[in-house]
Design goal:
The protein is mainly alpha-helical. It has three domains: about 70 residues, Multidrug-efflux Transporter Regulator, Chain: A, Domain 2; about 140 residues, no CATH class; about 55 residues, no CATH class. It is built from 13 helices and six strands. The chain has a three-stranded antiparallel β-sheet. Strands 4-6-5 form a three-stranded antiparallel β-sheet. It is elongated, with a radius of gyration of 33 Å. It starts with 5 loop residues before the first strand and ends with a helix.
Length: about 300
């Protein structure tokens, strides 16, 4: 191979990893320049190889062939591709500081009580908590050590592995909904000016959008952390009250009954304590009134007849 490498189509397919059929299809769609004709041979250069690798990279990032063609045309006409690829790399990059670690099957079994559980391991692989290591059946890659550590703690507290897997499936669906809403929100109010319109973003626009992604990336997690802490505190208190109430004797066990309140009363209470605490406020207010009346009754019974005569 010389400094200016040349390839026949079979050689280009071997070096690039693309099939001969794929290379010809790219040529027909205008994604790949035509080869140079020398006599009866079609010859390709390193530029063709670089273009095939660009296409493969963009396909891996989820771009369709039509979008790839537009991006490559922008590059070819001097409008720039670096900024767009930078934005793609920023979005496609890691959204966490965690680093994946390896764990052996023996260590995995030990962390979960020492008893092998093939069904639980299969669930973990399906959920992506564990990833098989090619060529090593006794080793797994753990993309999120923190997530695995949570499962270990829950199992140690008595939660069955099947229940942990089921909970993670349910939680993942809800978290994906939150992520989707956050992306819709930021796209509408932040990124629309860069990503929408009749033309692809310029190199400068894409570079600025990539910078915004870096700045906004931690906001989603910070918001979810704060709201989860607030919700956990509120719900944990209610759960504790219910559990403590469930342990009372039948005579003292609290009962519930639906009572209609005027709309203006509800609005007034919401203004005082917020919509989410209306029921709690009404229950406490009613309890305080009942206690006050019980105290009034007790003090009335304790009065002397002379005192009652004087009042009469």
């Amino acid at each position: 191979m010389t400094e200016a490498a040349v390839y026949r189509i079979e050689d280009l397919a071997h070096v690039s990893g693309a099939s001969v059929r794929t290379i010809r299809a790219y040529q027909d769609r205008g994604l790949l320049p035509r080869p140079e004709r020398r006599g009866r041979a079609n010859l390709y250069s390193d530029a063709h190889l670089a273009r095939l690798r660009q296409i493969a990279d963009l396909l891996d990032r989820g771009y369709g062939l039509a979008s790839i063609k537009e991006l490559l045309e922008a590059w070819d006409t001097g409008r720039g591709l670096g900024g767009v690829l930078g934005l793609v790399a920023e979005v496609d990059g890691p959204w966490t500081d965690e680093e994946a670690v390896r764990i052996s099957r023996a260590e995995l079994d030990e962390r979960f009580g020492g008893s092998p559980d093939d069904e639980a391991v299969a669930d973990a692989v399906e959920l992506g908590v564990l990833e098989p290591v090619p060529g090593d059946d006794d080793c797994f890659l753990v993309p999120s050590p923190q997530e695995l550590a949570v499962a270990v703690e829950l199992h140690g507290a008595g939660v069955p592995l099947s229940a942990i897997a089921g909970h993670l499936r349910e939680l993942r669906g809800q978290v994906e909904h939150i992520a989707s809403r956050f992306l819709e929100f930021t796209t509408e109010h932040v990124f629309a000016r860069y990503l929408q319109g009749p033309h692809r973003p310029t190199d400068a626009d894409a570079a600025e959008a990539a910078s915004l992604v870096r700045r906004l990336r931690p906001l989603a997690q910070q918001t979810v952390d704060a709201e989860l802490a607030r919700a956990m505190r509120s719900l944990a208190v209610r759960q504790l009250r219910r559990q403590l109430g469930a342990g009372e004797t039948p005579q003292k066990r609290p009962t519930s009954r639906s009572v209609a309140l005027p709309e203006e009363t509800i609005r007034a209470v919401e203004g005082l304590v917020g919509a989410e605490r209306v029921a709690e406020f009404v229950a406490l207010a009613a309890e305080r009134e009942v206690r006050a009346r019980e105290l009034d009754a007790l003090t009335s019974k304790g009065r002397a007849p002379a005192d009652l005569d004087e009042q009469g």
